[in-house]
Amino acid sequence: MASPIISVIVPVYKTEKYLSQCIESILAQSFTDFELLLIDDGSPDRCGEICEEYAKRDPRIRVFHQRNAGVSKARNYGLENAMGRYIAFVDSDDYVLPDYLRDLYNSLSDDKCLVIHTVIKFFPDGHSVRSDWPETTIEGKEAYRLLLEYGDKTIGYSCGKLFNNELIHSHHLRFPEDISLLEDLFFLFDYAQIASSIKVCNVANYVYRIGHSDAALSVAYKSLPEEMLIFRTFYQHIEKFVLSSGIRSTDFEGTWRSLRILFHRILLVLFSQEEHKSYKERMACLKELRNQYAGWILAYFKPDYLADKVTAYFLRGKLYMGVDLWMRLLLAVHFQKMFGGKGK
To answer: How far is Cα of residue 163 from the mean position of the Cα atoms in its chain?
Structure first.
């Protein structure tokens, strides 16, 4: 049996309500030379059974079951078993339009080009918004332009892209399994730097559900070590892009400033009741953050809300007791207009 041109990898977890639509939209593709890998991540509902039912109907489907280990582990499992020349990802609570695979494949400039298409955001109230991006082709050595030109856009998803399978395996690329936020973006950063070129097309065939699924827990806070790891990983990726670009770090100001959202998460978790951190532990953590990221804190930690600005002022001045008192006060009164909150 000849290897398919494209392997479509779908991690599946607690999306019983949407899974059939997702699978059927892939099977209905105008481009037919593909295999569909359904990776059941130990889903507690009927997702595993639904996957097996579809596999009986179509020989292009292969189903894999694993104990629940997260979306990155599921995608990596798919990568380890994919036989296609190219890889495309679809999330099990989303669906794709009939020309999704055809348009991705036809957009290739060469065998090792990274193709990036835009998405259609579908909201719970029924309305949808198409993300429009300026089309461009970026040479591999200029991968840093992804941050400069698209850093403020929703380009970090694994969906809507076509990856070269051989390139992934020859460079041992995998989704990071020790974090559960921004893992798509980190995989994209790593891949972009080894691709021959990056072709961004204003083509939208992927329907991305926003806030529909119970499995969409990316907004939930993680443990303090994981939140700090996420921040450090993103920081290091930006740093790597800056060094490879040969241009001034200040030219990446917008991207550097985007880190404040992740920094906010660290502070909120540090002072949350769930962490039960003592005063001594909180002081040690604040000092570690201030020492390790002093340059970033002084140059780019510039929050929008007054409550956040007070926190930043104390932290920049190494007034750790002030940070501690201020944060505990805000959280004690359930002050909402902080760290991007909607406010009372």
So the answer is: 16
Apex CA 303: angle with CA 297 and CA 305, to 5°? 150
Residue 263 is inside which H or E element, if any? helix 260-270
Residue 326 CA to residue 73 CA, distance in Å, equals 39
Given this model, what pLDDT does residue 342 score? 40
Q: How confident is the model at residue 291 (pLDDT cuts 50, 70, 90)?
A: very high
DSSP structure class, residue 220 = S
∠ CA 258-290-231, rounded to 5° = 40
pTM of the model: 0.84
CA 140 – CA 251 distance, rounded (Å): 19
Q: Residue 127 is which amino acid?
A: H
pLDDT at 265 exceeding the cut of 70:
yes
- Round to whole Å and give the CA distance between 315 and 273: 21
Cβ atoms within 10 A of the Cβ of 76, count?
21
Looking at 190-194, 230-234, 330-334, which range is the least confident one? Answer: 330-334
Q: Is 256 helix (H, G, I), strand (E, B) or coil?
A: helix
Round to whole Å and give the CA distance between 187 and 219: 19
